[in-house]
Design goal:
Elements: H1 24-41, H2 44-63, H3 78-140, H4 144-174
Length: 178
């Protein structure tokens, strides 16, 4: 399937064009770059490096001879202010892009968790129904006491029948033969 053929893609409305940073591998590469930058700016090393940069800039432009200075303290270090403003103006959107990617990942994870919870609930309900069915089936089964009483009754019947047979034989043997 060709990337440029939007008519064959199901995730793009017909006739629309994809945004330049939303298609294919370039978006992923750029997204990983933004996350790397955002992750780097959130470290103590970045703050230490930025502080060191500013200290060196201020020291150079304050302590060096006039002809070697490139930013004037008289003008309030305008170039340093511009450099820091430029850095901040790029940092904010990069951090927001990285945050949007994280939100997308979180949204996918939440959806997967929801589906997993639904499956777990369905499995739990099924198991609960099975346990109830087993309880009902066990309730209908004969208990040990019932089986013992029935066996005792059968044994008593057999004993009576045997005693009756033995009594019939004794009376037949005791009767005169003629």
């Amino acid at each position: 399937m060709a990337r440029g053929n939007d008519e064959r893609r199901f995730d793009t409305p017909k006739g629309s064009r994809r945004a330049p940073f939303r298609s294919g591998g370039d978006s992923d590469r750029f997204g990983r770059f933004t996350e790397l930058v955002a992750r780097g700016m959130g470290t103590p090393w970045f703050l230490l490096g930025l502080t060191l940069f500013c200290v060196l800039w201020l020291a150079w432009n304050t302590l060096m001879p006039e002809d070697l200075r490139f930013d004037s303290a008289a003008n309030g270090f305008t170039a340093l202010t511009l450099v820091l403003s430029l850095q901040a103006s790029y940092a904010a959107p990069l951090i927001l892009l990285a945050q949007n990617r994280q939100d997308d990942r979180d949204r996918v994870q939440i959806e997967q968790d929801r589906q997993r919870a639904e499956r777990n609930l369905a499995d739990t309900e099924y198991l609960a129904r099975e346990v109830v069915a087993l309880r009902l089936a066990v309730k209908d089964l004969a208990s040990k006491d019932f089986i013992r009483s029935e066996l005792r009754a059968v044994l008593e019947e057999l004993d009576r029948a045997q005693a009756d047979r033995a009594g019939d034989e004794d009376s037949a043997n005791a009767a005169p033969r003629g």
